[in-house]
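Quick one, T. Sequence first:
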Amino acid sequence: MAYDYQLVGGAIVAILGMVAAANALVEKRRPYVGLGGAAMGCGLLAWAWLLADGFLGPRDLAAAVYRILAAWT
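Structure tokens:
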């Protein structure tokens, strides 16, 4: 599909950004880098949603991961 890489990449970057922001808050640092990563991940997810004409659900993420893994073999 046209949006597989954006969907999977956006989910990974958004999750890692939120973890980095939470880690920074726990260590009493400014979470700017983590929040920036989370924002970039959300931007990739929005781009994937636009490419899919607004029809994305939770099942599409799993299917996109499997299609990407199948393309590598």
